[in-house]
Amino acid sequence: MSNNKSNGYSSNGSLVVETHHHFLDELYKMMVKDVYDGGRNRDSKVVEFKHPKELEALMDLGLNKETSDDNLLKICQDIIKYSVKTGNPHFFNQLWSGLDDYSLGGAWLTEVLNTSVYTYEVSPVFTLMEKTLIEKMLNLIGFKDGDAIFTPGGSMANMYALNVARYKRFPDVKKTGLYGLPKLCVLTSEKGHYSIKKGMAFLGLGLDNLVNVKADSKGKMDVQDLEDKILQLQSESKVPYFVNATAGTTVYGAYDPLDKIADICQKYGLWMHVDGAWGGSALLSKKYRGLMKGIDRVDSMTWNPHKMMGSPLQTAAFFTRHKNLLPPCHSANAAYLFQQDKFYDVSYDTGDKSIQCGRKNDSLKLWLMWKAKGDQGFERDIDNLFECSRYLANLVKERDGFELVIEVR
Amino acid sequence: MSNNKSNGYSSNGSLVVETHHHFLDELYKMMVKDVYDGGRNRDSKVVEFKHPKELEALMDLGLNKETSDDNLLKICQDIIKYSVKTGNPHFFNQLWSGLDDYSLGGAWLTEVLNTSVYTYEVSPVFTLMEKTLIEKMLNLIGFKDGDAIFTPGGSMANMYALNVARYKRFPDVKKTGLYGLPKLCVLTSEKGHYSIKKGMAFLGLGLDNLVNVKADSKGKMDVQDLEDKILQLQSESKVPYFVNATAGTTVYGAYDPLDKIADICQKYGLWMHVDGAWGGSALLSKKYRGLMKGIDRVDSMTWNPHKMMGSPLQTAAFFTRHKNLLPPCHSANAAYLFQQDKFYDVSYDTGDKSIQCGRKNDSLKLWLMWKAKGDQGFERDIDNLFECSRYLANLVKERDGFELVIEVR
């Protein structure tokens, strides 16, 4: 093996692929020992925390010069040492945790196959897996027909919702922009996720046109306040067009009353979106899917399997009941990529449903995990999570110096 | 090992982590044998192509029921069999290829650590690595100061550019939206990437306000036509605000004359963005960075290391010379995440520079690759790629029945 770390080209232009089995084999052993086994051991630390300047001094971060495989392995050891072990049973800070064996395997396989999901020809298997997952999840939501696409996170999925909803109501907006349209307003719970704010700014809708609806003491949207605010907007000649309900708010874990909100949206002809990024996975449990009552009546939903279902970041998707909306809303018909005269059915080329061009394959890890566990495995997990929250709530109630802010279900 | 594929919870709520070493070990061996070694063998097939319906019939895609580790391994074998081996030396269809050992290792380590890059506390190492890469790349671009953020692909980075540029010129747009503003127009080469179209629609700017500038026979932007069109827009009381130049067009690989375009942008006070998603990596070569002459004068740039530099999909970033623009433009100040009273310097919390909330760690794989190869390794690779294109051009010229469409440099 030469000292040259690059794949070289011989003088006739042919590629000489060098292999570094030793590096990968040792790294694999290290990952299994120190993250997969060690990092999930409940007696191990979640993180060896260092302040930024301290960590910069401890780690050899500088680039510039080539380095040896042995030094790289030493660095990988440090990376593991100073990183947060999100699979540790004591990791509670964020809305995801755990490390599922099968989705990890799927994520690794994704990386070594390293493809983009925009045309069937370059990702035949993953195109079909995304299709399978979408059909499965549309079915769980209760959309009889519909369409969906995987997105790099829930914030992006919520922005998809804002965009396809305005396109549905004002199809010319794609061509003419927001110019000449009345002020399009969005209503969301004061406890809803901040990505709706980011979306208002990014999509040119403006934060001034976002209206916060009151939440009750349990963090659920106040439906009377929603209706009052819609009427108020109309009286100001503004055009409410979109209501964002939340199924699992970030801080309280509250499920908005979807059925009642759907009544209001129906009455006033508004697009109803459900941000189920975190809590949408309750749909997998017979016991808890009642929290999402009314979901089959809404127009769209965001759902992040990388949260409650435990697949790796990023696994998120946008779903809509409207079958033929994503392609006309997002297409740019790039001739070099989406030729119409391919020798397979080009409806399998999903790229133009997305606002991206190259799109990471986020399906395989979820698909493999689902194949391994089945519906039943997920149901058991979700039920367990709700049980654990009750267990924790009881601990809090019984312990001096602690106060339970909100009762769990 | 129990038959239960899930991590279970015992009756006192403690997590019982089960391990599936056999599955992961066998999968690792398979990935190394059939993708890492076998898939890159130049005598192997790039793909065992099957039409969609045929592949659906061949593969066991249905979910629902739990399945055994052995069956999963069999399925993984099929996934590999029917997927495109993008690391194969004969894979030429798209703008990326190859499979670098170190970035693959980094990508695998990313998956097992499974974290989000929004606050320092949850991703200390990766926050510093992104910072290191950003400083390195800003320096290569020639922005003396500046800011940047990794994005899920180049299309998203181009949309960042459209958004921060309009915010710079009209800071109220975040609050009020596009209402009340004149028609903001964007100019791009007719050979530029289609993501600018997608961005015009998504950001509410409208396709009607996108103006295509002519390209010459080599695919480079016609600077005279650019100036003519700016003047024409002004005469129609429209407001050109943004010029998208391309450093490496998708089809011709043409580099627009950045220096001359910068002159025009300076003259008319327009934001100049360079879509260097594909070709920006020429900056790593002393021999070819002249193609990017003028890049240090522009306002922003998109650069995808997952293309010419060979890191895995997705590795992309948005760079701007304007230091304090990303945070005010994109922030939503979510109180639950970005507390200001943490016990470290919260300027290391980068999440609010992004339009996402959770954000995949895309830095480690590139950082590790850079650490392994050094600047020199990348320079050698880039130089090799240009040499290969000349080699291919010569083959085309000499072979009967082929015609060279455009001379290579």
TrEMBL record, chains A, B:
One of its GO terms (cellular component) is cytoplasm. It holds the Pfam family Pyridoxal_deC. Signal peptide: none annotated. The modification N6-(pyridoxal phosphate)lysine is found at K307. GO terms for biological process: carboxylic acid metabolic process. The keyword Lyase applies. Keywords: Decarboxylase, Lyase, Pyridoxal phosphate. SUPFAM superfamilies: PLP-dependent transferases (SSF53383). It comes from the Eukaryota. The keyword Lyase applies. InterPro entries: PyrdxlP-dep_de-COase, PyrdxlP-dep_Trfase, PyrdxlP-dep_Trfase_major. One of its GO terms (molecular function) is pyridoxal phosphate binding. Its cofactor is pyridoxal 5'-phosphate. Belongs to the group II decarboxylase family. Homodimer. This is Cysteine sulfinic acid decarboxylase.
